[in-house]
Amino acid sequence: MRERLEVDVSCDSEFMSEVMHAIGQAIRDAYHWVDFEHPIFLYLDNAGGHGTKEVVTEYVRMLEEKYHIFCVHQRPRSPETNMLDLGVWMALQSVVEKLHFRQRTEIGALVRTIDKAWEEFEPIKLSNMYKHWLKVLDLIIEDKDGIVLVETKRDFFS
Known about the structure:
Layout: H1 13-30, E1 40-44, H2 53-67, E2 69-73, H3 84-100, H4 107-120, H5 123-142, H6 148-152
Parallel strand pairs: 1-2
């Protein structure tokens, strides 16, 4: 039997340490009209891959101090409050699939398609998802921090 290499894939602390300065700068560049004195909030889910607790603590501090970007972590095990899970990925993916239909599977072609999809992405879709998210949060508050109403009032979102 061949020996198997054990690799910790629960988080990628090295990668996160390397890219968070560039991400902070990219966010400030993308929102150049937001005065530095006005904070920008970056919402993070609690999925793996963000780094160890120590690394997360360090880049959260750095983003606040250097870029005035404040990280807000989603409640643990609460996908119903995750904007990405509520449709951002699906909406973007549907555009990518339409644009990339019958194209080669070469990675560069896919990257170009994703860039084009992002440029063509309709802002109203994000606005609608945000409104949906607010309804979800209202139900969680009404349910005294529970998710039963979110699960039982699916027609509320139609």
